[in-house]
What we know:
mainly alpha
Amino acid sequence: MSSTNGELTHLKFDDLSVYEDKMMKKLPADLIPMVAKINEQLPVAMEDMKYYGKSSSQFKDLLLNSGMPTVMTCIYQATARIKRTRNALRETQLKYAENEVIIEAKQQEFKETDNLLRKKFLKVEIAKIQSDMDEGSIVIAGAIKKLSYYLNYFNELKKQLAKEGRELNEQTIEELQAEDHIATAFTQAIDESRAKNKMAINAGEQIYFRKLGIPQENAKLDILQFFADEVEYLDKNPGKILPLDMEDKFIKKMIDKYKHCPKELAKRRGVTLLHEDSIIK
Length: 281
């Protein structure tokens, strides 16, 4: 960092030149060429990295980080990510604004103080804050891109609901709970059964079915039949991969078959599954 006429210039820590005066003399000679290379290449790398600047890719968020048995599941996940990203973006922006004020105050103090040691200390403090702000700019850019993507994804999901003749509101969310949980229960049970050579459904999934009012033995038979259908397809079509929508069609079939079960279970217990006077339509 340098000062001119009492003014402080922005000291960047993207290279090692700031350390050369004192620290370079203490470095082993073999490190000097490495420092020169870093001074040359690191600023370019930092410039390239700003085009990414986010914790995950769109591909990973859509296919690997999101479970997708139903549109409703995807909407839950999208809204949760939108809220988290919005809050993180707001926090980072506020921190950035706070640091700008702090730097302004320290620069003012630098101008006014005659204490040389205090001036040196202020230089380091300001440089540290500016370095954090540079990193914060990358985080803000990444969060904006992530939030833009999640909003696009959310709007695509709303369009899918609209194609089904449904509007995204509290009543729709409540009405789709049965479908969402039935799809989740069967998806998880299929994955668990595959891990056990397609011979058993673990206790956790059986409890899930029971809580949904779905007879456990029926669910097990349906899953075993699905596995049998997969084997039959592969036997009849050697060398081919299974249709990508085969499991999706099975899950949809299970939803249609069992979606009445939760409501009947609630009725047997003498309770109403959905109180329409307690929601906003």
